[in-house]
Write a structure and sequence with these properties.
The chain is α+β, with helices and mostly antiparallel strands. 29% of the residues lie in helices and 22% in strands.
Length: 212
């Protein structure tokens, strides 16, 4: 018999299947799960508890090993202990560490650059995934790569228009969109009260003034 009325459970099941969620031995892997009070995309093959545990065990050394970048000891401690820090998937296995349930700001390294973490590399840093073994065999010769057309960077105004006119504005902040488009240089660091290291970044309020 055909379903003639909207059913929440069927919709939720289809939604989770599309997000790669599976259940094995009573454990839920992948899909959209609640991590520190926020609905978060969990990679297939990983439980929500595992993903949250990574946040609970973040350290300066782990971040440097996974990303090649440094964060302050204070930020590492905050990420571990403050549940207002959470993860937002930006495609594939890559995540921001955000502050605030609505993504008020994004965690930054000691240079003030937004921090992007690859969960697979993070797993390796925790010793949960072995780095790929190298081989001594001579690799086959590769064909000479074709010349690629030069990449023309979009201007700030073009990116702003693309963001607000498109669907991205429904799922992320403007500064996150800039980073995703490879223009993290346009994201402005937040000023820390009393000086000190930059720990979070957010967009410049001037980006939005012409929309008010």
């Amino acid at each position: 018999m055909a379903v003639t009325e909207f059913e929440d459970e069927l919709y939720e099941e289809a939604y989770q299947i599309a997000a790669g969620q599976t259940v094995r031995d009573g454990k839920v892997y992948g899909g959209i799960q609640e991590i520190r009070g926020v609905q978060t995309f969990v990679p297939p093959g990983m439980t929500g508890d595992q993903l949250e545990q990574y946040l609970n065990e973040i350290s300066v050394n782990v971040i440097e090993s996974a990303t090649g970048r440094q964060i302050s000891d204070r930020l590492a401690k905050k990420i571990k202990e403050d549940d207002d820090y959470n993860l937002r998937n930006i495609g594939g296995s890559k995540y921001f560490i955000e502050y605030g349930k609505d993504g008020t700001a994004t965690a930054a390294d000691v240079d003030g650059q937004p921090l992007i973490i690859d969960i697979i590399e993070l797993q390796k840093s925790f010793g949960l995934v072995r780095p790929e073994e190298t081989t001594l065999e001579t690799p086959p010769e590769k064909a000479a790569p074709e010349e690629e057309a030069p990449v023309i960077e979009k201007s700030e105004s073009e990116l702003r228009k693309e963001f607000f006119d498109g669907p991205a504005s429904d799922t992320m902040s403007f500064e996150q969109f800039l980073i995703q488009q490879g223009r993290g240089d346009l994201v402005k660091p937040m000023k820390m009260a009393g000086g000190g290291a930059v720990e979070l970044v957010r967009g410049d309020p001037n980006y939005y003034k012409d929309l008010l």
